[in-house]
Amino acid sequence: MKKTIFLFCIFFSCCLLLNRGLRADETDTEDTTLWEDDSDIEQAMQDGDIEYETYENLLNIYDNKIDINSADVFQLQSLPGISQLDAAKIVSYRLKHGYYKNIVELINPDVIDEEAFDKIKIFITAEIPGKIKTKGDVLFKTKSNSDVELDTTEYPRTYDLLRLRVLKLGSYMKFGATIEGDARYENYYKSLYGIEGGEISRGYRLNKSYVGYEKGPFITQAYLGNFRAGFGQRLVFDNSGQSAPLGLYPDDTYSKEVQVTFYQSEKEKDKYSFGYTPSLLNGFGGRIKQGRLDYTGFYSRARYPVRTFVFMNDGKLRLLSLEDRYEETLVGSNVTYKLSDKTGEFDETYLGTTLYTSKREGMEDTSINIWKWPPQQSFAVYGSNFVTGYKGFNFSGEAAKVNGWGDAWYMKMAKKMGKLDVVYSHRDYDIDFYNPWAKGYSKHTDSSKFKCRDEQGDSIDLVSRITNAIKMQFTLDQFKHVAKSKWNSSEGDYDTVYETPTTDKEILLKCNWRLPRGLNLQIDRKWKDLDIYQNDASSDKATVTTNVQLKFRPSKISDLTLKYQYAEDYYDNPVKYLPKDYILSRASYDITANLEIAGEMKFADSDLRKLGGESRRYWLQVTDRLSRFAKIKVRYINKYASSAEEYETVEYYTITEPGYANKWEVRVDYKW
Question: Average pLDDT, stretch 497-512?
Fold first, then answer.
């Protein structure tokens, strides 16, 4: 133990000395320990803590819950913070000791610790197979539209959602449907000047529906309607929302929200928060597992939105997402074969191959001009992947190719070495590797800044339990790329700019300490530099962030969490920096066995160099379990900002003006 502590101290010191100029990510996208339900996931997205795609994927896992009594190592790796080694331990313990009676049984020295459990507890369930013949849920949610502030125009003030799912009907069937009431941008037209006119109108519509068939005697899975699919290591095809996908999944995703501001005059303005439906796959698909062979195929013909500029009634161009602007026909298949069982020093070995083809057609003469797609209207992508292991080493990898374009490959190795878990991965993508249906292949997430790139990267993750109470983690990710995109205002599109290679680096150091009387202290420091060699042509932003978090239970019926974060943003040189911080406290109290009240208060300063960047937000939530099957939750959010705050991604935009903003949400769940 002393040797392990000594090595970690040396390692920690060297990293600090060698990387003093590095900065880290402002937000911890994997810190889900504070989350209690989907409202926290949505709040994290609106605060800019997670990307919209991450929000969508986490919401999908939250809604569908991964069953720890039936999930394999691929599905379990979809959970936040669960590595390949953690997933293997969950499955191995289940096979040796039987089904988990409840999710708390995961907290075990032979499985995972309490810190890892806190990250995944809202995303998992434990069901005993065969005991449940019929189950389902009904969700009704209504909330105030995000950041809608109207000065001059009447506008629908709420977003409504009604979702019905029969998750198990008899032995094999399932069904789902989603009805949403929100505002959409409609009745626009195309002219010589582009897209003009239009209006935002309120309506109720059936946005998603599907019929599913699961775990049958011959057909393992079958879906008709809206569904998802994913294979291998996510390089060939994946819209599953899973980190290690294999198979078909229901599509229960909600509509996306986009905000637009209309200026009636220099002082008066209207804000509109409206939605559009992101279709994934719409058609039919099936999966057959017989012996060692696992085959999946699908056909989809769905319509998708185009994000483009529109001449609005106020005479200005606005960037909007217009629904049903092009149609894509997708045909895909995957074959995975189990080459060998676990024997002696060898683990189970799988080999898979995936192929999909795409044909896109514009709707009503709409030209498709989206940089993330290959320029031709039809294309094919194919590749192969493997999973194996030897003497405790777990290996997985995948190679992919876009027909007529570039190649890419990915490899990952994991090994448990006593108290030390080691995970290493390497990725290599050609500059012309365009694959629109492989969402997880690039380290870059901000598509407004990066287009195609020739990218090579390495990542290593070390996790060690120093003692029974102390766990430490070190993560290093470094990759280089030689192309980026630059906005061409005259053409209204992104141009690829070829440049000298730039190298980005991310480092995370985290320590979790379980103290007596239920106290849990977590300290982490993160560096992120988007160009460690300071290339003036592409240098963007560097940050360093320090988090200190303390969780404890004052009593059996209450919880309390305190968190402080200090961050510095560095832009094109170290002289330009922006220091900021926030302090957060969250508490919950069980008034009765069925009634809980919870609240959170957050004080933040977006610029510590001057006055005017202060903001405050608090929310109060009451949750009442009405019966064994029904639950109601009411949340009220109040926010005050002393200056304008702005947050923008490709899919979401919001700006909060100085002053107060109020939101509310009511949610009713009924499960049987």
Answer: 78
